[in-house]
What we know:
Elements: E1 3-9, E2 13-20, E3 25-32, H1 38-52, E4 60-67, H2 69-75, E5 82-87, H3 93-96, E6 121-124, E7 127-128, E8 134-136, H4 140-153, E9 157-161, H5 170-182, E10 187-190, H6 191-194, H7 200-231, E11 238-240, E12 246-248, H8 249-254, H9 262-278, E13 283-288, E14 293-299, E15 302-303, E16 305-306, E17 309-311, E18 314-316, E19 320-321, E20 323-326, E21 332-336, E22 342-348, H10 367-374, E23 381-382, E24 387-388, H11 391-405, H12 409-431, E25 443-447, H13 451-461, E26 466-469, H14 476-480, E27 486-497, H15 503-523, E28 531-541, E29 548-551, H16 561-579, E30 588-599, E31 620-628, E32 633-641, E33 650-652, E34 655-659, E35 662-666, E36 671-674, E37 680-683
Parallel strand pairs: 1-4, 4-11, 5-6, 5-9, 9-10, 13-25, 25-26, 32-34
Antiparallel strand pairs: 1-2, 2-3, 7-8, 11-12, 13-14, 14-15, 14-20, 16-19, 17-18, 21-22, 23-24, 26-37, 27-30, 28-29, 28-30, 31-32, 33-36, 34-35, 36-37
Helix pairs in contact: 1-7, 2-7, 4-5, 10-11, 10-12, 11-12, 12-13
Domain Acetophenone carboxylase-like C-terminal: 505-677
GO cellular component, one term: cytosol
Protein name: Methylhydantoinase
Amino acid sequence: MAWRLGVDSGGTFCDICLYDTESKRFAIWKVSSTPDDPSRGILTGITEGLKTVSAKTSDISFLGHGTTVGTNALIQHKGALTGFITTDGFRDLLEIGRQQRPSLYDTQEDKPETLVAQALRFEVPERVRHDGTVEVTLDEESVRDAARALKKAGVKAVAIGFLYAFIKPEHERRAYEIVREEFPEAFTCASYQVAPEFREYERFSTTAVNAYLGPVMEVYIARLGARLLELGLSVAPRITQSNGGVISFDLARALPVRTVLSGPSTGVVAAQAIGRVIGIPNIITFDMGGTSTDVALLKDGTCRLTGEAEVHGYPVKAPMLDIHTVGAGGGSLAYRDNGGLLKVGPQSCGAFPGPVCYDQGNLTPSTTDANVALQTLNPEFLLGGRMAIRRDLTMERIGLLAKELGMDVMATAQGIISVVTANMARAVRVISVQKGHDPRDYALMALGGAGPLHAVRLAQELDMKRVIIPLTPGVMCALGLLLTDLRADFSSTQIMVAHPGMYTDIVSIFRDLLKQANHWFAQENVREEDRGLRMSADMRYVGQNYELAVDMPVSIDAMSDESVTDMVRSFIATHEAQYGFASQTDPVQFVTFRIEAIGKVEKAAFTSHPDSGPDAQSAITGARDVWFPETEGFVSCPIYERSLLRSGNEVAGPAIIEQMDATTVLPPGTRAIVEPHLNLIVETGR
């Protein structure tokens, strides 16, 4: 046997998905995360998961790993103390940003906390002009002084960002060398290494985020690597990037900013694959874990890849799937704010101490506790009976919160769910309504351990008609690791107006990028026959401030003036589709050139099952009272065991469908049908 393993480590649970390449057999496992040392929980999950299928470490042919360590550190501001060295006069750029409020019409919303305190931001004399000429030579002694001051201040990471370093990186490169000489124990990075593209604020922000997460990821990867060696793993482990592909641990250690959406990105990859199989291409993914919720929009089966995004308020200039993250999860804490209103999140109780019902010392109720109180979640145990829970403790603590709010206990529990649902609905509108998409034209796919609990309520809030519950929703990110390729992105900003004869310049730029891609292929040991390339350019009209990506129509060797003309035509057509208008005469600029390098790997496959008819009575394992807002009281609900449901079975709400990795809630008036690949298609009644 040859087993491929996908391991997704979240803030609350560690998910394991195993796939036997010979028998085409899937198996899943789930254990609690260990926030003090996530690698410990991962090792436990792998060991126990292998035991469930009677496999050994030597049987592992691939191990891919997705993690929310970087995401959660950024959301909860638990990164390293970071310093910043920049061009004289630009110390406050990280704080000034684009001089925009987070929400134009909300004067009460605070800007996100600046990752580098002003006292830890140092200016040094140096200046490169926009054309690459040096106006002020780098003052190396000032860099040394800054490095020594940061060392004395006790920082753990140093970010370096100079003006126009994406055109001429020599000053940044030398500053990097000096900091390494003076302060070798610090995690150090420069913007030319992290984001060699134009727009100084976004480039500096990305570099600061990379430094902020660097020491956290460095410790995490070192511990995990050591534990995997102790386990006897013989293959090189991989880690997920935000673009949905996987890379080596070494590259992830150097560029942790590329893993900020590591965990959720492979969930989107899995959703794309399932959407193709079941014939539903337009999907909004809803991935709710213990700490955060991630949403993404798939139009025609594809999630848009963006070169820049805002992650919890911080601009990040790195290739990533267009995923929006909010601090709302099963562990999000509920409380009464200063105005007497009920609030939920973004602070989370995590895996330890966990929700009140875990009986590990937490006294503040969470979203999970609300579900236990309502009995939408099993009030006695989770994980198929492996984790006992205490509903009595939950009721006591929610009772105290209800007293503070002057509300009924069950109304308070339902209020927590309603607040969380509203938070998640706002997140969905960000990636749909605000970008010109009507969520009613899409199906909602629930991922994550808490996704199926809340998916139907969220879909009803958004007037969506269908919800898809995958066969193993709680481990979808781990499954996605078995469906993705190796992937890396390389870019170069060279702003030039389209003109005859320019194709020779474009060829030269792409050849330089190709050298970087080939070096990466060699590092990752990708065979020639498994290598793939996608070349594109970000283009805009002269005077515009944002770009659109246009694919290269031919190979580098076949480039000509006609190829440039084809790209301009393609840009105009894309502009028309995106904005509803386009100019045929205004000059067009090429801005940033990109190569996406893909190393193809063997992937898991889905199995179709024969129709067994609509009767699902044989899957009923019991009943329990569940509190629904429609009835404002408890209603007896049948409990279905997910593993006993067969293709063609139908389940009418109110009902609860339980499985080891998740619980699906079907409110009154809804209906679920099991499709041939055993995914649930829920009709919401909207």
